[in-house]
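Quick entry, no commentary yet.
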Amino acid sequence: MSWSGFFIILGTLVGVAACIYVVQRFVPHPLREQHNDVAGFIFAAVGVLYAVLLAFVVIAVWENHATARETTFKEADELAGLYWVARELPLPLGAELEKQTLDYAKTVMHKEWPMMTEHKSSPEATQLVYGLRESVMSYTPGGPREEILYERAVNHLEDMASARRERLNQVDEDVPTLLWIALIAGAALTIGFTFLFGLSNTFSHGLMVLMLSGLIVVSLVVIKEMDFPYNGVTKIHPTAFEVFLDRLPPPRTV
């Protein structure tokens, strides 16, 4: 968990504790005990509705994170497929394609990935994709075997470019502001309802409220940390491209 998340949790719990103290001081528990039954019925409905909303957002954020991770591995896999096809193509085109695939992987890892934390992409990586496409499309097969290699190269290139577009689209995906407003307002309403209950044991009441508040705010911090797949504690690393580069033989030279 990041320091910002830790301070959010701590600050929320301190604020809730202060609110409990104020309520206990100015609205004694005998006044609130009279309405425990009614407040409990309403609180059950509010709690269920907020739990459904919270669970929906957590699942959606997790699925988005998992999809983004799968996209990076798909892009790297298609790039690796293009590299191996290039090694079967005649020189000098084959060697040039090998170099271009390696340059693209290194550019994505070292230049584009840091930019993605700021919701940006690398123009250099985009130009390398254009260069790969130009190299593949300029090739004229010289026989049945080369026709098969050419078709495979085109398929790998198109699938890799499609995965790249999907990854770049995920750079801007996050929880909408309106949904964040609903989550925060729902949290305040749910926690606020617990102040309406009256218990003779102030310590027990305060402890229960703080535990509920902690559970809610931790859930919101988890959503915040996983909101953007390429930033935060749970951010996706360019592991797929690292594996691709680590397991390849050196490129041929012309």
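second:
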Amino acid sequence: MLKKRDLHDCQALYELMVHPDVFPFVRHKAHSYEEFLFITKQTLEAEEHGEIISRTITDEWGNPIGTINLFDVQDNAGFLGTWLGKPYHGKGYNQIAKEAFFNELFYELGIERIFMRIRKVNVRSMKAAEKLPYVTLANETSKSLYEEINQKGDIYNLYEISKDLYTLYILRNGQELQEEHLKEA
């Protein structure tokens, strides 16, 4: 479901990114294919320098369908950013990609905290984030970061996914699956 970013995927990703239902939510917007190619090259360089972790989300057949990123990486933390092409919305790819990405970040790359900033007017996204048992509202616990992302006004809520809470979720979820399997046997 995830693979390292590759310039060969740029044409397909660009066509998915420019859809009007996707484009407003992309952090690094490109207004032409050439600009998207340039931004992707910059992303690959930034990853080499440890500033970003970026992956292409693929479907079952390995076709590129979106990207998932950890931006502004420092002190074993960063900001999550993800987008999927419109034809892939609501089909479960986002959840699968996030879990694969979180596993890589926490258990292979040494990341300890993932932050999400969600616009306060985006009630749907806030409710979705708050439903996840490993997500906490971090407006108070990371007050300086909360104030930094809201320098231009009270725009965002800050959410955090810690390695500890995510690991607890994985362990509990795995335990529940084992218990269900034992009941069926």
